[in-house]
Amino acid sequence: MHYYRYSNAEVSCWYKYLLFSYNIVFWLAGVVFLAVGLWAWSEKGVLSDLTKVTRLHGVDPVVLVLIVGVVMFTLGFAGCVGALRENICLLQFFCGAIVLIFFLELAVAVLAFLFQDWVRDRFREFFEINIKSYRDDIDLQNLIDSLQKANQCCGAYGPEDWDLNVYFNCSGESYSREKCGVPFSCCVPDPAQKVVNTQCGYDVRTMTKNKWDESIFTKGCIPALEAWLPRNIYIVAGVFIAVSLLQIFGIFLARTLISDIEAVKAGHHF
């Protein structure tokens, strides 16, 4: 019996340039994220004094933008160059990283579902830490304001959480004009006002609690998010499935291209 090895194996241009196109989008997105993050840091003077990042007790949203940018830039670059140069090492790095990210996302989703109370406690701690640093970073301040306005909520579990912030604290030691108040994002919007009243939350908590809901949101953001999730479960599931399918598609393209390259190399060495 005779065995034949065909020497006409070749790398599929279809998979090669499809993987390149797939990665160029992520690489360009990574460049945009990095540019936005570095611009935001330059505006805040962080690039000239990097110790400002360590002095912030809360989370600087720009750090998250930069981390996402670095990951997308690195993976996009590895995928693009690996596909064009038919470099197995870069393609394996890209494929392995995508697989790792995929299983991390899956593990986080499962653990968050199984340990909801633990996740809720950690989220409350995270929110309270950032409430304390509300006035320390403009990007963090904008993020909290956006969250409160979008979900019509105030604080982690209620307006009283703003006592954690030195500027809004009701204690006698505070001399801030914002004492016993809340940020303007907690205020119930007045349709008649065309200009945002940033002082609408001043002295609100000096009134009796049964009058708070006339001027501010009294529901906490954690209960608001818990109520939002069941109402939008199909949207969340759809996003998760779409992201997962994109990752699986990228893994498939990378593995197929690696197999083609290995087949060509095996044919050459025969």
TrEMBL record:
Any one Gene Ontology cellular component term annotated for this protein: plasma membrane
**Disulfide bond positions:** C153-C186, C154-C170
Query: Which spans are transmembrane here?
Result: 20-41, 62-84, 90-115, 233-254
Q: Does the keyword DNA repair apply?
A: no
Q: Where in the cell is it found?
A: Cell membrane; Membrane
Q: What CDD domains does UniProt report for this protein, alphabetically? A: TM4SF9_like_LEL
Q: Which family does the record claim for this protein?
A: Belongs to the tetraspanin (TM4SF) family.
Q: What is this protein called?
A: Tetraspanin
Q: Which Pfam families match?
A: Tetraspanin (PF00335)
Answer whether the UniProt record assigns the keyword Glycoprotein to this protein: yes
Q: Do you know which InterPro entries this protein is assigned to?
A: Tetraspanin/Peripherin, Tetraspanin_animals, Tetraspanin_CS, Tetraspanin_EC2_sf
Q: Where does this chain mainly localize?
A: membrane
SUPFAM superfamilies attached here?
Answer: Tetraspanin (SSF48652)
Q: Which organism is it from?
A: Phascolarctos cinereus (Koala)
Question: Which keywords does the record carry?
Answer: Cell membrane, Disulfide bond, Glycoprotein, Membrane, Transmembrane, Transmembrane helix
Note the topology in the membrane.
Multi-pass membrane protein
